[in-house]
Specification:
The complex is a heterodimer. Chain A is of the alpha+beta class. Helices cover 41% and strands 16% of the residues of chain A. Chain A folds into three domains: 3-113, Helix Hairpins (Orthogonal Bundle), CATH 1.10.287; 120-149 and 167-265, Cupredoxins -  blue copper proteins (Immunoglobulin-like); 275-374, Cytochrome c-like domain (Cytochrome Bc1 Complex, Chain D, domain 2), CATH 1.10.760. In chain A, the strands form two sheets. A five-stranded mixed β-sheet of chain A has the order 3-2-1-5-8, with no helix packed on it. In chain A, strand 1 (120-127) and strand 2 (130-137) form a beta hairpin. Chain A is elongated. Chain A starts with a helix and ends with a helix. Chain B has a domain at 21-254: Cytochrome C Oxidase, Chain A (Up-down Bundle), CATH 1.20.210. Chain B has helices at 6-9, 21-26, 30-58, 69-104, 112-131, 150-153, 156-185, 198-229, 243-260, 263-277, 284-297, 313-325, 327-341, 350-373, 375-381, 385-415, 421-448, 462-490. Classes of the chains: A alpha+beta, B mainly alpha. The interface between A and B is large, with 103 and 97 residues.
Chain lengths: 375, 528
């Protein structure tokens, strides 16, 4: 079990608010935990009340008429067909009601857009189909990780019972301190994604080639879950977001833990790996990054996602395969992994595909070769 | 004013035209073409319905059971495209073809041959669109909005869709030009603009919207095409483009498109309510002005579909205020309909039931539209099932219900036979009940946090999804009742309809016999 996962468990048991998801109303917006989300929640309630009043008034009149002004009840049709005063009234009064609605909405829009003076800045990058996070400023600077959905395929395919947080759980959650202004910078690597956590009142598209930003300040510790909200291809429904809001102390502990882990796993890029080591490591990298399209059995889902098992590229010249993996293929879902994965991971996953299924080239690609290809 | 073409003058020659299939392929008669539009759109409605039911079957329970995620995305995409471009839009054009000449006392549409051409493009487009399921890689799965860069990633199904959109766009533009020219030039003597039935007004304004925005859509999809195949970078930041540009161009088309699909519905309802309330339409002039206001406002609200793309606060506020304003003319319309019913002498034959149902359910869609217009609330509900509920309330309960209202209203004129009231009422009650079972729970799903366009969902959404799926199958099956009602009329199984089967129907269409003869108003009637 990873350190992060253990942390998740402690956070879950320590913070009573973590149960908020379970107590969540199933017919209304999620319980808000930021000022913006609270304003949205209250504004929605107000709008619902105004709409309901108008609804009852208008349809009260209509159904009164429907039941009383019937020919079968002897109603005789009147002949009026206009009334300037009435028509002006029902044009002007709605305008006034709308002005009343626009006022609080304007205030909230302005505060939503104020991303200035954050305590912590995190960059979130949307990939097909996972999120990458870089802590770029504030406490925790330098931490980076990739966050994949952790719900097993067996649960999705109905071969195992579904867990409590089915489809809303990840391997590496975003962790932030309570009460601090967190600015999220968003971008994407391939297509448009959207980073959405309802309880935080945040939804912002992640647009490839551009940076957008948004912010939140969580008032309550807990675990808040969300999804990618913009259709981004095959596994759009399977790239959740999990945010753990911790107390300042616990957050500092998490940061120390992460930074220690980062230092420990720093690999020597010039290390010579044995074929078996690379294949074993590569299998894990493949499962996390490649199997969604190319499938665990390497058969792919042709023609959109071609098979790797028996592929002439995978069995052929390694330089060509390294190029495809590092630079991606334009106009397809094949991403450029050169910037996403470490040289060691790239070497491992390429070695794995060249020595898995029916591909038995017996070649080991060393991280140094990847570094050379990068330059 | 009588701009009749030579082949219409010689009425007695029409029997010598081609028969059988060739009659339908070569026809230039507005009634034949109207009928073909209506049949085509109903076939597309059923195809899109089958896709919707497959989607609902997959979403009946959490987990993946019936389709794979990739195919699921193809289904949601094609369901949208088929329903918008194949079912709703052509159905309204079918009504325009049938009814506009009859309502304004014209002998036919202004450009009869172009009318034939604009219909026969549609089956070609439909074959490209539906056929794209069977090409390698399947149909496009980028959503009906075809957002770049996802649409740039798609297989050749995307190219087929682009060409289908081009062809349907050409068809729509030709149809729209025809309608504008017909309404402006071919009205019977004495039929001034402000004496036209409201359906003519709403369609005239709709036709202008079509001419304005269909080329914009064509431009948007052409840019996708060149980004895909010819090395341009309109939507690729690496080449100096911007993915959000696509959304601006698309929604500049897309928002007027929403009104293209609802304004003619307003027109149909405005014909039916006065007939069955036995009272003239309240506020005719304000209805015309409201329709025009909605059409003009529709060009300045497009970015409310894009509140989450991250625009400056000032832009967000502008689009929020402009969008909220649309509630005013829309409200005026609803108030006018209610005022028309007020102190009328109402009966509730099937068309009136559908029209009353339309006002009730469409207005709910209007309210959720207002809630979506509030930018901060939209941040929460954008791309969730709340939006799915909202636009089905206006497109199904709005456009589709009005189409059914109009179909029952004019079926006696089209076929010469009264439909069965029992079957019509059964169709209405099943539809409105199952419609609400299907779509009402989607508001709750969206508020509680379920994104749209996902093939599988978290466990807390299971109950409402199961309910929505049950409702969807009920709604889908209810539509088969309509086939029974129409087939009975076409086969002559029912009471013979008089020229004016309704007690207090106004309008020139009721002065010609039922069924309307092949050629009508060869000598223009005089309107007092």
């Amino acid at each position: 079990m990873s350190v992060l996962a253990r942390f998740a468990v402690t956070a879950l048991s320590a913070v009573p608010a973590a149960g908020a998801w379970a107590e969540q109303s199933s017919v209304n917006l999620q319980t808000p935990v930021t000022s913006v989300a609270t304003e949205i929640y209250d504004m929605h309630t107000l709008m619902m009340i105004i709409c309901l009043v108008i609804f009852v008034a208008v349809f009260g009149v209509m159904f009164w008429s429907v039941f009383h002004h019937r020919k079968s009840k002897g109603a005789v049709a009147a002949h009026f067909h206009e009334n300037t005063m009435v028509e002006i009234a029902w044009t002007v009064i709605p305008v006034l009601i709308l002005l009343g609605m626009a006022w609080p909405a304007t205030k909230t829009v302005i505060s939503m857009k104020d991303t200035s003076n954050p305590d912590i800045t995190i960059k979130a990058t949307g990939y097909q189909w996972k999120w990458g996070y870089n802590y770029i400023k504030g406490e925790g600077e330098g931490i980076q990780f990739v966050s994949n959905m952790s719900t097993p395929q067996d649960q999705i395919q109905g071969r195992a019972a579904k867990g409590e947080h089915y489809l809303l759980e990840v391997d590496n959650p975003v962790v932030v301190p309570v009460g601090k202004k967190v600015r999220i910078l968003l971008t994407a690597n391939d297509v448009i994604h959207a980073w959405w956590v309802p309880a935080l009142g945040v939804k912002q598209d992640a647009i490839p080639g551009f940076i957008r930003d948004t912010w939140f300040r969580a008032d309550k510790e807990g675990v808040y879950r969300g999804n990618c909200a913009e259709l981004c291809g095959k596994d759009h429904g399977f790239m959740p977001i999990e945010v753990h809001v911790l107390s300042a102390d616990k957050y500092s502990a998490w940061v120390a833990d992460q930074q220690g882990k980062l230092a420990a796993t720093k690999e020597d890029p010039n290390k010579e790996w044995a074929l078996q080591e690379l294949v074993a490591k590569g299998e894990q990298v493949f499962a996390a990054n490649c199997a969604a399209c190319h499938q665990a059995d390497g058969k792919g889902m042709p023609p959109a996602f071609p098979p790797l098992d028996g592929s002439p590229i995978v069995q052929g010249d390694k330089a060509e395969q390294i190029k495809v993996v590092m630079q991606g293929r334009d106009g397809t879902a094949m991403a450029a992994f050169g910037k996403q994965l470490s040289a060691t991971d790239l070497a491992a996953v390429i070695t794995y595909t060249r020595n898995a299924w029916s591909n038995q080239t017996g070649e080991a690609i060393q991280p140094a070769e990847i570094t050379a290809a990068l330059n | 004013m009588s701009a009749v073409t030579p082949d219409q003058v010689h009425d007695d020659h029409h029997h010598h035209g081609p028969t059988g299939l060739m009659r339908w392929i070569t026809t230039t008669n507005h009634k034949d073409i109207g009928t073909m539009y209506l049949i085509f759109s109903f076939i597309m409605f059923l195809s899109g319905g089958v896709m919707a039911l497959t989607i609902r079957a997959e979403l009946f329970q959490p987990g993946m059971q019936i389709v794979q995620p990739e195919f699921f995305n193809q289904l949601t995409t094609m369901h949208g495209l088929v329903m918008v471009f194949g079912a709703i839009m052509p159905a309204f054009v079918g009504f325009a073809n049938w009814m506009l000449p009859l309502m304004i006392g014209a002998s036919d549409m202004a450009f009869a041959r172009m009318n034939n051409w604009s219909f026969w493009l549609l089956p070609v487009a439909a074959i490209l669109l539906i056929g794209s399921f069977f090409v390698p890689g399947g149909a496009t799965a980028a959503g009906w909005t075809l957002y770049a860069p996802l649409s740039v990633q798609m297989g050749m199904g995307m190219d087929l869709t682009i060409f289908a959109v081009h062809i349907m766009g050409i068809s729509s533009i030709m149809g729209a030009i025809n309608i504008v020219v017909t309404v402006l030039n071919m009205r019977a003597p004495g039929m001034t603009m402000m004496k036209m039935p409201l359906f003519c007004w709403t369609w005239l304004i709709t036709a202008y919207l079509l001419i304005a925005v269909m080329p914009v859509l064509a431009g948007a999809v052409t840019m996708i095409l060149t980004d895909r195949h010819f090395g341009t970078s309109f939507f690729n930041a690496a080449g100096g483009g911007d993915p959000v540009l696509y959304q601006h161009v698309f929604w500049f088309f897309g928002h007027p498109e929403v009104y293209i699909m609802i304004l003619p519905a307003f027109g149909i309802v405005s014909e039916i309510i006065p007939t069955f309330a036995r009272k003239p339409l309240f506020g005719y002039a304000s209805m015309v002005y409201a329709t025009a206001s909605i059409a003009i406002l529709s060009f300045v609200v497009w970015a409310h579909h894009m509140f989450t793309t991250g625009m400056p606060a000032a832009t967000q506020l502008f689009f929020m205020y402009a969008t909220m304003l649309i509630a005013v003319p829309t409200g005026v319309k609803v108030f006018n309909w209610v005022a028309t019913m007020w102190r009328g002498s109402m009966t509730f034959e099937t068309p009136m039931l559908w029209a009353t149902g339309f006002i009730f359910v469409f207005t709910m869609g209007g309210f959720t539209g207002l809630i979506c217009a509030i930018a901060p609330i939209d941040i929460q509900v954008q791309d969730t099932y709340y939006v799915v509920a909202h636009f089905h309330y206006v497109l199904v309960a709005g456009s589709l219900f009005a189409l059914f209202a109009g179909a029952y209203y004019w079926l006696p004129k089209w076929t010469g036979v009264m439909y069965s009231e029992f079957i019509g009422k059964l169709h209405f009650w099943c539809s409105i009940i199952f419609f609400n079972i299907t779509f009402f729970p989607m508001h709750f799903l969206g508020l509680a946090g379920m994104p749209r366009r996902i093939p599988d969902y978290a466990l807390q959404f299971a109950d409402f999804n199961a309910l929505a799926s049950i409702g969807a199958f009920g709604f889908g099956l209810s539509q088969l009742i309509f086939i029974v009602a129409v087939v009975k009329c076409v086969r002559g199984d029912g009471k013979k309809a008089a020229a004016s089967p309704w007690e207090d129907a106004q309008g020139l269409e009721w002065t010609v016999p039922s069924p309307a003869p092949h050629h009508t108003f060869e000598i223009p009637p005089v309107v007092k």
